[in-house]
Design goal:
Blueprint (H helix, E strand, L loop, with lengths): L11 H10 L3 E5 L3 H9 L4 E4 L3 H4 L11 H12 L6 E5 L8 H13 L5 E3 L7 H9 L4 E6 L18 H17 L3 E5 L3 H10 L4 E4 L7 E4 L1 H4 L21 H14 L10
Parallel strand pairs: 1-2, 1-8, 2-3, 3-4, 4-5, 5-6, 6-7, 7-8
């Protein structure tokens, strides 16, 4: 096995090794080539080209209006940058309603968008799609807890899994996704204790957003850490640009805080 160097691309195997070593994974959303270069130079190991671009880039009120063409446009922009960070790209709303549709659209994200892995939202109900994609050679990242594409069903952006039944359901979702072959899991807006329990149970890396400090890695929306998002920030967001002096310094500060465990702090937890 060839040892990874500072300039060699991050692989899913490398991210799994980081989990095993207890080394935190620094992840940010990324939507274009210029920011991709800055983020990689600052030490970000994992990009999510998220459908959050619908809100922070395109000005929509939710992620629902984002199309496959939108995702491919931004994913391909990120892919044109120097390739070091591992790239996960979201399948947008209503793009994976059947196994055939999921595969066709996932292939487009890989072939046209340069994705290393695709991400879809949902747990037990989506496990068959994960298994189908993985069996056809497409790596998949799951997403449990708060599901932005289904936010209206949750009654808005609310913490999930606070009671015993909700926590059990999210745990079941996580286990079902791993069993189906998911290679990574994003957990959003769930209690820190629940995220810690799931992370300790799973073999695959977990990436938290509003899910406490014990996930294998952390992700935030890039625009949020730079304090430039228009919408109101949730409690787990921290502005790393304040006092940093530059965008690059802000990203380095974020990476350092994830690595040493100082982010997320107590004030960011549910």
């Amino acid at each position: 096995m060839v040892a990874e160097t500072e300039s060699s691309p991050i692989t899913l195997a490398a991210l799994r090794d980081m989990k095993q070593r207890g080394e935190k994974i620094a992840c940010l959303t990324c939507y274009d080539a210029s920011f991709a270069e800055v983020l990689q130079a600052a030490g970000v190991e994992l990009f999510i080209v998220g459908d959050s671009l619908g809100m922070v880039v395109m000005g929509h009120d939710s992620t629902v209006p984002v199309s496959m063409d939108n995702m491919i446009h931004h994913a391909a922009s990120v892919a044109r940058a120097r390739h070091r960070a591992y790239r996960v790209v979201d399948l947008p709303y209503l793009s994976y309603e059947s196994a055939t549709q999921a595969y066709d659209n996932a292939r487009r994200l890989v072939d046209e968008g340069g994705a290393d892995m695709v991400k879809l939202e949902g747990g037990v109900a989506r496990a068959h799609l994960v298994e189908h994609l993985v069996n056809l050679g497409i790596p998949v990242c799951g997403h449990v807890g708060l599901l932005p594409q289904s936010v209206e069903q949750f009654g808005g952006y609310r913490v999930q899994g606070r009671d015993a039944a909700g926590a059990a359901a999210i745990t079941e979702d996580a286990l079902a996704l791993q069993a189906a072959g998911a290679g990574m899991l994003v957990m959003e807006c769930i209690p820190a204790a629940l995220a810690k329990s799931i992370t300790g149970t799973l073999d695959i890396p977990t990436i938290g957003i509003g899910a406490g400090p014990d996930c294998d890695g952390q992700v935030l929306v890039l625009y949020d850490i730079l304090g430039i998002a228009a919408q109101q920030h949730p409690r787990f967001v921290k502005d790393f640009l304040a006092g940093a002096g530059s965008v690059a310094a802000a990203v380095r500060a974020y990476v350092a805080a994830v690595k040493d465990g100082s982010y997320p702090a107590a004030e960011h937890l549910y």
